[in-house]
What does this fold into?
Amino acid sequence: MDMNETPGWLVVFADRLDRLLAFWHAHRIVFVVGGVLLGLVLLWRLRGQEPPSTRAPSPATEEKTSWLDTTSAGNEKQNIFERTQNRPGLQRPSSNTNSKTKTTGPRVVSGRKPAQRTTSQQAKKQTIQPYVFYASLTGNTKATADSVLERLASLNGHNSDILKPELLDLAYIDLDDYFVSGPKAQADDVNIANFYLVLLPSYDIDSIITNFLEHLRETHHDFRIDTAPLSQLRGYSVFGLGDIEGWPSEEQGFCSQAIEVDKWLAKLTGRKRAYPIGLGDIKSNAKQAAEEWMTGITQTLQDILEQGSLGEGVAGSGAPIESDDEAEEEEVVDDLQDEFPDLGRKKRQKLNNSNTIDVEDMGGKSSRSKQNTPLAIDFTTYSSSGASVQPRKAMVPKESPTYTSLTKQGYTIVGTHSGVKICRWTKSALRGRGSCYKNSFYGIASHLCMETTPSLSCSNKCVFCWRHGTNPVSTTWRWEVDDPQLIFDGAKEGHYKKIKMMRGVPGVRAERFEEAMRIRHCALSLVGEPIFYPRINEFLGLLHGEQISSFLVCNAQHPQQLQDLDRVTQLYVSIDASNKESLRKIDRPLHRDFWERFNSCLDILREKRFVQRTVFRLTLVKGFNVEDEAEGYADLVAKGLPCFVEVKGVTYCGTTSAAGAGLTMQNVPFYEEVVEFVTALNAALERRGLGYGIAAEHAHSCCILLASNRFLIDGVWNTVINYEKFFNLLESGKDFGPEDYCAPTAEWAWFGNGGFDPRDERVDRKGRPKEEKKLIAI
Ligand SMILES: Cc1cc2nc3c(=O)[nH]c(=O)nc-3n(C[C@H](O)[C@H](O)[C@H](O)COP(=O)(O)O)c2cc1C
Ligand code: SF4
It folds into this structure.
């Protein structure tokens, strides 16, 4: 074929093909390699195995993570994981990372998220704040707690990551502040981890420790509170002191209460036992055991700081087997405890009873405890525990430190729960040196007055109380109930015995001594809470039967008992603060609903005001309940409308327990300050249109009386009581009211006249006659 005859398009096509072939030959290796790579990528895609470096987060996985966070089980697992991951160097337990758990999906994914958080948290280093809590009735545990504090303080000196330790007496703190949610002060500071050390003796009688245990138990069972509200603690440990001679084994009660506290804390902290419980026998190894325990604690604190963990294998370090076993065991005990609240004790009692030794010889065991079981009376909470059957026991057994402490202070213990004591005013009146304010306000000569209480137990722990922190405190009556006649006879006997002992004291006036041998008045206010006694009305009947007037003071915490109380000559309610927070601080009530109870009592008092004489008793404690509170008190008066308002400056008792509560002489107001307060209160009452006025004073004891205008008759205050008339009216069986048995206040007692009875002689501290003068010129 002639080339000249070839069509043009064919020539162009051949030329293009030629060039393409040349290009392929020049680049074919690149194309082959690229093709293979592309194939591989496609293959990878088809099998869903994208290379990690290029993978974007999968929405499906994200969903799984958040689902896990919102389930309760997942939450718990995640919390545990977060806690452990936050501690550098801690290995996750292999059981959580094995292939079996991986296939369940959520657990594997759950681990990633917190791990990312950990890095930022680790950047902030935590310091440890140690708290040393203790209870002590006879001082041994206090001494041990002091030495523990010393060691912790020296740790603080060497290592700034351990903060200065705090020492706290369980009898004088508000348990809610530390054992419901942890110390408030540091609640928001994530850089401070709290560490609790609790040192406790054990007592098989009621004491402050019983109350502490009850608090832990109630907190755990309170449906409003998380079951492990203290889980933010870094750790805790307990040390118990006991007496192995009297309580030879743990089953027989050796250190039983420390052991119980240890278990409750395990629950409340979510098993943060940092170091095993230490136990010491007071008669042999207490010191050495405490030192060994403290060495362990020191090591634990160092572990926490260095590794962020408690160390593997340490009891309580969270090993799942140990925790689960304990939880199960505790749940069983719990369930039984709900039915039989004192199960552990019963068990011990059985053991003791099976011994041939007389339980009384063992010390601390009352033979009365073998008696039948009465129903416990729950004055307070509405929990089932109060209504359950408990072993009958003495509130203040003869062997108890409370008994020793009270008798040392001059009380005569009557029966198992009552006390009587002659007060300093009775002695003073016998010598003609002046009576207490009740003489000036109501006509009670102190040498005719018996001060007693049928219940040494109370449901408050007031800062100014002079019971030295040893009295049983409780919200429930769980003791045997003595017969009212036994208490009445015992109280009179104790009182007369003490009066007779005054016979030889220089200056006692013969006629007053004679008069004192017939009791005319009874102040039911000594210590404790008289209406706690379940048979109080029968007791009042006995007093009135012998024409002994009754002045009853209650703490406004038992509305039902107040409601049910029969007529008394004068009914008092202690008003220790004008608002909820202040009342909580000063009275430290055991009841959680203390404010509601308090208000309810004021309502009841208002209802009773036309039947009997009602009184608000205010005890002023500077720095606690005085400053800016006059208006608040006026509101309370408007609510309760009492016949009288007694205002008294606190008396400082100078005990270590008072100091422990933060009370010093600085808290005692001067009389001028009391006058200033009363004037402000009076003005506040006037502003509210309430008819009250300042009626009388007893400057000698820093006490002033405000009275309702109901007792301002023909321009004269009638605050005194006509006792004869009172008993005549009572015996007549007719209805009568407070105005029916009142009498004029003596002029020397009017406000501005000092209130010192001219029939007495004022003396100075050394007993030398003092020149009479008006203390306050108004
Ligand atoms: C009335 C009474 C009851 C006691 N009950 C027990 C008890 O149940 N178990 C125990 O181990 N020790 C018991 N003890 C011993 C005390 O726990 C021990 O003396 C302890 O050191 C007291 O500490 P304290 O001085 O800090 O109060 C009891 C002691 C007394 C006086
Ligand atoms: S109410 Fe009375 S007895 Fe009870 S704690 Fe207060 S001051 Fe003490």
Q: What stands out?
A: Confidence is low (pLDDT under 50) at residues 48-123, 311-388, 772-778. Residues 458, 460-462, 465, 467, 527-529, 555, 574 surround iron/sulfur cluster (ligand 2) (CB under 6 Å). The chain is about 40% helix and 15% strand. Residues 8-46 form the longest helix (39 residues).
